[in-house]
Amino acid sequence: MTPNNEKLPESIDLTHHLSAFSKARPTSPLKDLQKYWGKPGLISLAGGLPSPEVFPFSSVGANILLPDTFPARPSLSAEGPLSWLLNLFSSGKAKTTRIEIPRYANTPGGLDLATILQYTLASGHPKLKEFAKAMADRVYRPAYSDYTVLAHVGNTDGWVKAVMTLCNPGEGVLASVWTYPSALVAMRPYDIQAVPVAMDGQGMRSDALRELLANWDAEERGMARPHVMYTVPVGQNPTGAVSRPPPSACIRLITASQTMEANRKKEIYDICVEYDVVIVEDDPYYFLQEGPYYPRPYRAREHDKKDDSLQKYIDSLTPSYLRMDYQGRVIRLDTFSKTVAPGCRMGWFTCNPKFAERLERQAETSSQAPSGFSQGLVISMIEQWGFDGFIRWTQGLANQYTIRRDYIIDRFAEEFDLRVGVVPEKSSIDYFTGCSVYTAYPKERSRLMSEKATLEREALLSFVPPTSGMFLWVKLHLERHPRYGSVPTKELEKLLWIELAEAGVLFGPGQIFAAEYDEIAAGHFRISFSNAEFNDLKKGISIFAQVLVKFLRD
Amino acid sequence: MTPNNEKLPESIDLTHHLSAFSKARPTSPLKDLQKYWGKPGLISLAGGLPSPEVFPFSSVGANILLPDTFPARPSLSAEGPLSWLLNLFSSGKAKTTRIEIPRYANTPGGLDLATILQYTLASGHPKLKEFAKAMADRVYRPAYSDYTVLAHVGNTDGWVKAVMTLCNPGEGVLASVWTYPSALVAMRPYDIQAVPVAMDGQGMRSDALRELLANWDAEERGMARPHVMYTVPVGQNPTGAVSRPPPSACIRLITASQTMEANRKKEIYDICVEYDVVIVEDDPYYFLQEGPYYPRPYRAREHDKKDDSLQKYIDSLTPSYLRMDYQGRVIRLDTFSKTVAPGCRMGWFTCNPKFAERLERQAETSSQAPSGFSQGLVISMIEQWGFDGFIRWTQGLANQYTIRRDYIIDRFAEEFDLRVGVVPEKSSIDYFTGCSVYTAYPKERSRLMSEKATLEREALLSFVPPTSGMFLWVKLHLERHPRYGSVPTKELEKLLWIELAEAGVLFGPGQIFAAEYDEIAAGHFRISFSNAEFNDLKKGISIFAQVLVKFLRD
């Protein structure tokens, strides 16, 4: 796949989106003196740099796993995923390779501590930017070639920098009704509010977006029409909204009409062009694309069909908004938090050069560059693995999360009577619309249930199996609770949350994920399947089943 | 030395200093649910944590220098500092010890990657906070016991967080006339301006501060009286203002009336109490206290007198503003950038608990915690060294910078005819007041110069030898330039800067360090002696001498 060679059209200038905060930020001082900075042979006594001779670290190294440590497709051996994982780590069987960063490089241009632990450009080490560029060219393939990449210290930081670059106090930011709470909380101090847009099973609804923007009444709203959108397009946090249609065999079995997510993104992008909106694509779960959930009897057959070659894998990934961004109105946020570790506190922007320049100035006077230890160790790992190795690593990673996703839903099937139904076009639970929804009923009663009326009366919870990310987003049927209507749903949700906590399991309280809290949509938990030990996942769902049945009966 | 047990008086409440930005920042959501977070035995499926089993790093380690790698007092062997340093590193003679962080700790509570590379509290790892607390209790000794420490990602980040916590748009921040430019640039986007306070040889003048605050006319100034002060009290950047009086022998030799800096700090603190000002103490150079410069003939004798025991060394350090802070109105910023390496991107706040809580909320929705690699490696190093080891390391470090400071001033003595004079109470160059000022004259003419008039005519530059930090702050006698008066001094400074750059040496242009640029004070270079190789330092000063003599003659 060759990258696009089209440059951004000169007629497109998006600098009117820059905020007063951003415009007030000076460019580097004494611009005409800068040509001397870093000129070879010059003796520089200008900077405030400590001597690398007095860094106490003489060398830093690590043992790293190999890129193919985790299988490229789910292993369905008799042993099962759990015992396989335990074998890998507790027996010390996982093969590792060594990376080492010396104080001074042995070869010119080689990575060394003298450079990477020194003050560096806020935009990141050239080798980090090289990697980010390769990721764009090989995976995201932006619709223009003169994009810029630069480092940030994690997507939350990246998002705040984007907000400060684009938004003025009193403005609004378009976001799905359910969204990542930290993103909303981060805007509030600057008097920037979320403007919720309705969702369906694919995430933000394009028709709702258009309606909102077309009919925007600034006076009535007390706010100009929003010109910035926040979106978590893959593994939508918290709902994990569907990103891809299941393959045909599966459609016949469990699902309904679903369009390609790429189409939805294109629709949304085109609306953003029409109404001059900048899209900030916060995409931490991009490499955790798990694909559709197959109930156990069909799983092995579906997995066997999978072509796990590297290029096929890359092609199977849902397109980033960058792919359709012919105007440079997308700021994409990538992070190493999920592909390597959250402790990296490192990620990068991909965006047009003019936004990038403002973002860099902002980084220079706040976070500066990501940690040199993080940059050094991650770059060194990528050099050891090669770019393809990194992609292969994410492939294995996605499969580890697929195993975990399958494992937790299998536990629901074990603990509840789990039934699948397709929710029609206009559902009261908007993000279920057009999806195969799994509804859980009490197990011990399942034989008695046949009538639709009984079923409705007995429903405990519903969910759509996520196709990416780390979370199961569960709608609780609190309307079954005896005190429903007399006690706010929010309170019922909290009561149940506390009963569960007392019984020994913690879920994410749904209400913290609402852009604007809505009683009708209330009563959710976000259940993370990404981290707990498999036994704890099993135990947690078992406790949930017992407590929930009792709670809704009392 | 036992730490103070006095708690902050309840009558003192400084929360009225919190900015609108800070007040609008919510406390953590669902406070009443938080008691369950992290409760042992609970199965948590609430967080969005990746599994540490899929971190590609199996172990991370380093070879670190020993705490006593660098001598505790300047070595004055026949070899000289240069050859000694070269020996240490190029021959690989520097002894190192090994630290290693495993994926899972072998002992309970031990440092491991599963924890340190995971999402963590924004306030930093408990072991990092333990270290910061030990530093406060053993070295800074705040005047109250219930202070809080929490991490930031470097002092620039810490400063911006403090500004956002304390200042509203349109407000002013008190700062010395010459100050760290990034601190000023960082405030500008939020429409917060520096309010310059006059300096003398000790830094900010307390009489000038009192006068400014006492006579503040909000209407005339178009700004409320400032309630926040920014200060770099040690190794004042850029001037390196004096922090300690030289010992008596030296006073007789080269210096004038100088009071203890502690007295000045106390005066300023008391004025800040009177006018309700919060002090932000940005102190990156605290452990680079080099002490007075002794001309070569006296140096060996003075160094021999030095007691280099650890406690004497700690006692010799100038007191932090924390020591006099009985009201909790100091926010102190510490960083590992100079004691370990800038690439750590890690430091900490020490301040009252109420400011700390707001700073932590801000970190949660922006930078989050410092890099886990940085935290892990630095904590592990400190565990290996012990707290005393860390202090011993800083002692060696300060001496390395002392050698460098002495080396560069010795080069001035070599390249110029360098003469010492005490500048009287009211100097036109304010930060020279009360100091021993070194003035450089052309070397080849020195024998002809005897009369005061000739001396004045021939002066090339003047400086006060810094007693801490990394910089020599040089006042250029541009008034000697033939075009002085007809061309702005700023332009002359720039012309000279360019001539020097063309000749092969770069200095920091003085004008970027001015809180408010003042033509009278114009014409400075900030010369860094911290990083360049000794040969380059020598060569750089030699080029400077040639170019400067020629420039002022033409």
Task: Give the structure's gist in a few sentences.
The first copy, chain A, has 554 residues and is an alpha+beta fold. Chain A has 17 helices and 18 strands. The first copy, chain A, has helices spanning 20-23, 80-90, 113-116, 126-140, 155-166, 181-187, 206-214, 218-221, 248-254, 261-274, 296-304, 310-316, 353-364, 372-415, 452-458, 489-503, 534-553; strands at residues 43-45, 57-65, 96-102, 148-152, 172-176, 193-197, 199-200, 203-204, 228-231, 278-282, 330-335, 347-351, 417-422, 436-441, 461-463, 471-476, 505-509, 524-528.
What would your notes on this structure say?
- The structure is a homodimer of 554-residue chains.
- Chain A is 36% helix and 16% strand.
- Chain A is of the alpha+beta class and 554 residues long.
- The first copy, chain A, folds into 2 domains: 277 residues, Type I PLP-dependent aspartate aminotransferase-like (Major domain) (Aspartate Aminotransferase, domain 2, 3-Layer(aba) Sandwich), CATH 3.40.640; 149 residues, Aspartate Aminotransferase, domain 1 (Alpha-Beta Complex), CATH 3.90.1150.
- In chain A, the strands form 5 sheets. Chain A has a 6-stranded antiparallel sheet.
- In chain A, α6 links the parallel β5 and β6.
- Chain A is globular, with a radius of gyration of 25 Å.
- The termini of chain A are far apart.
- About 3% of the residues of chain A have low confidence.
- The interface between A and B is large, with 120 and 120 residues.
- β2 of chain A pairs antiparallel with β2 of chain B.
- Chains A, B: Keywords: Aminotransferase, Pyridoxal phosphate, Transferase.
